[in-house]
Amino acid sequence: MASAADQMAANLSLASFAKATDLKKRLWFTLGALILFRLLSFIPLPGIDPRALGTLFDTTRGTVLDFFNTFSGGSLERMSLIALGVMPYITASIVVQLASSMSPSLAALKKEGEAGRKKMNQYTRYGTVLLATVQGYFIAVGLEGWGNGAAVLDPGWVFRLTTVVSLIGGTMFLMWIGEQITSRGIGNGVSLIIMAGIVAQLPTALAQVFEGGRTGTMSPVMIFGVVALIVVLVLGICFMERAQRRVLIQYPKRQTARGQMQAERSHLPLKINTAGVIPPIFASSLLLMPLTIAQFAGNRVQGESAWGDVLITVTAALQHGQPLYMLMYAAGIIFFCFFYTAVVFNPEETAENLKRYGGFIPGIRPGKRTEEYLDYVLTRITVIGAAYLTIICLVPEFLIAKAGIPFYLGGTSLLIVVNVTMDTVTQIQSHLIAHQYGDLIKKAKLKGGRGR
Question: Keyword Transcription regulation, does the record have it (predicted)?
């Protein structure tokens, strides 16, 4: 039934695509915004020597900076205006959401509708500026001391100030682009920006894999295994993202047109992975922000003080494939799975809505018992979803650390690309179906007017 419905939706989408002018505008706007994002990633910061920076960055291959570079679409490697990407914005949104779950005043603000949402967004923007300022300063200081300042043309406070201001402006502009894609494009603005950065790096990653096969550093069996693993991961992601636990909902018997009493039934779909791609992004963001600061600050003061050696030791312990990194990353994914699921689905509110409209779960009393049952089911399927995300993200990381595969082919990158692609296709189908329904309503009105 589900496949037949998907096929029908696809046929309707293809038939109405030629007439969906609004969707075409949204698609062109989204494409233009992503092209602008890619162009900005090639504009370097003032006072940077790109060639010297490229040489220095080659020495950090396989470190946390390489992973951060993946999410920024190569912007960090080129130290462009948008080198920080959208990570400060994501980290700020995490902090604001955590604060709203613990602060009664912020929780009440979330319930104030559009005005409350705008206020929360404003707090997120303030946090983004603060985090970008801190990261920008430590990057500027780290660049001055990295390789004896070879990448900086004129070190000093002027360079630091211009770097901080440029990075803040780049991050805020990128955040604004993401919001515009969400409102005027096809949605998922920030996620699309992250996905565009990862996809832009995929050709380089594939080229490195095949170059390894040509030079003999990677065996043909290993290359075949990498390709097979990617296919299995993509299929597994597609299956799990569509998996649902359907809770039967029954409504009181109602009299039909023929005078018969008939009970109505429907289903409440609960996704196995309710949180989507948010947990890996949030966990990566929280790990990458302090590690990036530690990496650049450690490069600046390494050998000059004990703190520099401590920072280098910490960043070395938190590299990909290291047990401490894997443990913290897995803990972050699991935590944000449960946290974000609690944010997007409220069992109490759902139970109250069912009770208001006369719906009930067979064998479960309406009200408090329904809330407890929904919470019971949601908790257990979230355990499965958290385990799925942890396996998808961590198993490839072990292989990357052991086999030297480029970071861009990691489980987190594939999860983001596949998940965002599926969400985008769903958004496009929704626009097309809404457009077709609008056409049907217009035709019905025209026929009604002619009948009169």
Answer: no
Q: Name the residue type at position 60.
A: T
Summarised one tens digit per residue, pLDDT across range 40-65 is: 988 888 888 877 777 777 766 656 66
Confidence of residue 386 (pLDDT cuts 50, 70, 90): very high
Furthest CA-CA distance within the chain: 89
Give one word for 187, left, alpha or beta, with left for phi > 0 and alpha for psi -120 to 50: left
Query: Domain residues of the chain, as ranges?
Result: 14-433
Q: How many CA atoms lie within 13 A of 258 on its CB side?
A: 3
Banded pLDDT at 383 (limits 50, 70, 90): very high
Question: Which superfamily is assigned to 14-433 in CATH?
Answer: SecY subunit domain (1.10.3370.10)
| Pick from 9-18, 275-284, 327-336, 347-356: least confident | 9-18
Which residues, in sequence order, are CB contacts of 280 under 8 Å at separation 6+?
A: 333, 389, 393, 412, 415, 416
Q: What is the pLDDT of residues 59-109, one digit of tens each?
A: 666 566 666 777 777 787 888 889 888 888 988 888 888 888 788 888 788
CA distance 299 to 293: 10
Q: How does 201-224 read in b/e, with b if 16+ C-beta sit within 10 Å?
A: bbeebbebbeebeeeeebeeebee
